[in-house]
Amino acid sequence: MSSSRAPLVFCDEIAWLVRRFKFEGDFRAGRLLVELALTVLIESDERDWGARFDVLLAVPSDAVRVRERGFDHADWLARRFARRVGMPLLRARRLRATGSQRGLGRRARQRNLTEVFSLAISPPPRVLLFDDVMTTGATFEALAQCCFDAGCLEVAALALARTPRSLPTRR
């Protein structure tokens, strides 16, 4: 993977919005997350960062999770983000259930994601991966490898938020 961006930090209000959207189906929270991320990217002069990519590819959710939630959260967010930035959207498939990655360390996440993604069509040369939250980057790395195996020349990742390495303590 050539680079990654995450304009928001997954803590406090952002974490609350992600949980409201992802686990409670609060689509207003999802729209707000997309708008906040776009605002940060624009204000940080990174609005054109994604322009060098041919397509946006959402990390596909586990089918079990989609059934539990009633929607694919990453695809939902990616469709809105792609529309706002004028980028075509490509879809991948998750070949097997991996279960929740929460609580797993980097190596366990990597093992859990070995050969888990596939692409139905050949992707264009430059792909921008998309997800809601990046923790270790293992999911992005696994999907990037799938893209490189399919012939991509450049793959980067964009998450709306990134988990902090450590949270400051409040006094």
Automatic annotation (TrEMBL):
InterPro entries, per the entry: ComF/GntX_DNA_util-trans (IPR051910), PRTase-like (IPR029057), PRTase_dom (IPR000836)
Protein family membership: Belongs to the ComF/GntX family.
Protein's recorded name: Phosphoribosyltransferase domain-containing protein
Provenance organism: Halotalea alkalilenta
